[in-house]
Amino acid sequence: ELASELGERLAAGPLAGCRVTITAGPTREPIDPVRVLSNRSSGRMGFAVAEAARAAGARVTLITGPVALPTPAGVERVDVETAAEMHAAVLARLASTDLFIGVAAVADYRPAEVMVHKLKKGAETLELRLTRTPDILAEVSAHRPRPFCVGFAAETESVVEHARAKLVAKQLDLIAANRVGDGLGLEVEDNALDVLWDGGQCRLERGPKTELARHLIQLIAKRYALARGAHSPSTKA
Amino acid sequence: ELASELGERLAAGPLAGCRVTITAGPTREPIDPVRVLSNRSSGRMGFAVAEAARAAGARVTLITGPVALPTPAGVERVDVETAAEMHAAVLARLASTDLFIGVAAVADYRPAEVMVHKLKKGAETLELRLTRTPDILAEVSAHRPRPFCVGFAAETESVVEHARAKLVAKQLDLIAANRVGDGLGLEVEDNALDVLWDGGQCRLERGPKTELARHLIQLIAKRYALARGAHSPSTKA
Predict the structure, then answer these.
(1) Which of A150, B35, B79, B87 is most deeply packed, by most CB within 10 A?
(2) CA distances from B200 to A123, A221, B164 (A)
(3) Does the distance separating the beta carbons of B124 and A109 come in below 8 Å?
(4) Which residues of B touch A31 (CB under 8 A)?
(5) Per-residue pLDDT tens digits for A89-135
(6) Adjacent-strand bridge partners of A100
């Protein structure tokens, strides 16, 4: 009872009462029992966003690929390995998600076949056949009813243009884009974000991921409140 | 002076004065700025072996791929990412290595081409052309003069047979083999090892990697002393 009272008291802030599902980290796609296909991602940005959402009053579920990070206090954590496992974990929570933030660097290709036994070294070259994984963010966005959808885009070039195209193509409510490389973005403490939505955009200058995450959550909460005011029947009751 | 005196006092034990180079962890082969090809490996076994070698009096250099582990006290650490970087770091230290222990799960294939910009999602399937990386252990073993060479083998089947074949093919002095899968070997605390050499073998039963590493170093030190007694002119002086 005390814990639930404390929970209620903590649940003040711009996302009070909002059920947020966040994905973080890389996924890992097995080639054989030893070899994997993966993405560079420490999970730091996703974990920082989860912590900031919790601090803003949200009830947060963090679905994460393999990372070496402690779970933020008050956040429910679900560990997964592959894109397929992350996809299943997100879908299982879709009905109880008001706001979805896809920060994970999900592998978009996986080996077409997984070998049961370890591949033996042999030929000088080898062809690895890859096949597409499900696009979790696009699927969540296309679902009806759908949560408020926030995506992330890591780009090496034409960052804002690529992010704007992704916002439109996947019909997201908001997208946060960052340049990767040059000591920014992946596996480092610092980041910088361009945040885009239909009709607006905002630049969050280079800073620690924890700080950027707090600013991003403020922006998301504002857009979320506007969207909920415009679309949700519950606010008109 | 105090530090060097302390160093000398610490350098008692079966590997006193021995310069040991150990590789640990996975390597990561870039496909593009985000995607990588890698191996499952926490680096725990290699780090435990480095710690045990140091405790046995050795001067230890630990060349490691990307892992989330603290450096053992008194061990010199060199961080690398790709098989090519690990290869170069090992070769650079070869002239000052008396004993080489290759624990790293080195990627034996890497993408034939690395894309400068992030690959865009497109086709449903994709062919990734891979090419062999240098075999660090075989190269160290073939070098003249050569250090005492210890290899590791992670196998899913016919563990001892595969390890014996590798011992012979690469002309190693000793090999430690473990079964992967079933909660053993990779990314877990526990392991079990079959240790093989020319004319003998020994089973180290399931236990924590730190404990196995201590037993393994005792075995290695014994074989190393025998080999040095048999081959090194310095012991005959």
Answers:
(1) A150
(2) 32, 67, 10
(3) no
(4) 37
(5) 999 999 999 999 999 999 999 999 877 776 667 788 888 899 999 99
(6) A21, A149
> What amino acid is encoded at B141 in this protein?
S
- The strand ranges marked E within chain B are 19-24, 28-30, 35-39, 59-64, 76-79, 99-102, 109-111, 125-132, 148-155, 174-179, 190-197, 200-208
Tokens representing residue B169 in the block: 């093919």
CB contact under 8 A, A118 and B156: yes
Q: Which residue of B has its CA nearest to A158?
A: B117
Residue A46 CA to residue A69 CA, distance in Å, equals: 11
| pLDDT for the residue numbered B184 | 58
**Pair A135, A141: CB distance under 8 Å:** no
Chain A, window 200-229: residues with a beta carbon less than 8 angstroms from a chain B beta carbon: none
Which range has the worst mean pLDDT, A156-165, B43-52, B70-79? Answer: A156-165
pTM of the model: 0.86
Residue closest to A42 by CA, chosen among A222, A209, A194: A209
Is the sign of the CA dihedral A182, A188, A192, A193 positive or negative? positive
User: Can you give the length of chain B in residues?
Assistant: 237
Instruction: Put the strands of the sheet holding A200-208 in their side by side order.
Output: A76-79, A59-64, A19-24, A99-102, A148-155, A174-179, A190-197, A200-208
| A131 interfacial to chain B (CB closer than 8 Å) | yes
Find chain A residues with C-beta within 8 A of B108's C-beta: 121
Per-residue model confidence as pLDDT tens digits over A64-80 = 999 999 999 999 999 99
Query: In this complex, do A35 and B38 lie within 8 Å of one another by their Cβ atoms?
Result: yes
- For residue B178, indicate whether it is catalytic: no
Q: Which of A27, A28, A34, A125 to mutate to test the interface with B (most CBs of B within 10 A)?
A: A34
User: Nearest to residue A167, comparing CAs of A151, A178, A179?
Assistant: A151
Query: Is A48:A210 a contact under the CB 8 Å cutoff?
Result: yes
Residue A60 has pLDDT above 90, yes or no: yes
Residue with the two structure tokens 């009070």: A16
Q: Would you call B122 an interface residue with chain A, using a CB distance cutoff of 8 Å?
A: no
CA distance A171 to chain B (A): 17
Whether B236 and chain A come into contact, CB under 8 Å, resolves to: no
What pairing do the DSSP bridges indicate for beta strands B99-102 and B109-111? Answer: unpaired
Is-contact B175 B195, C-beta < 8 A? yes
What number is the ipTM of this complex? 0.82
Of B108, B112, B155, the CB nearest to A121: B108
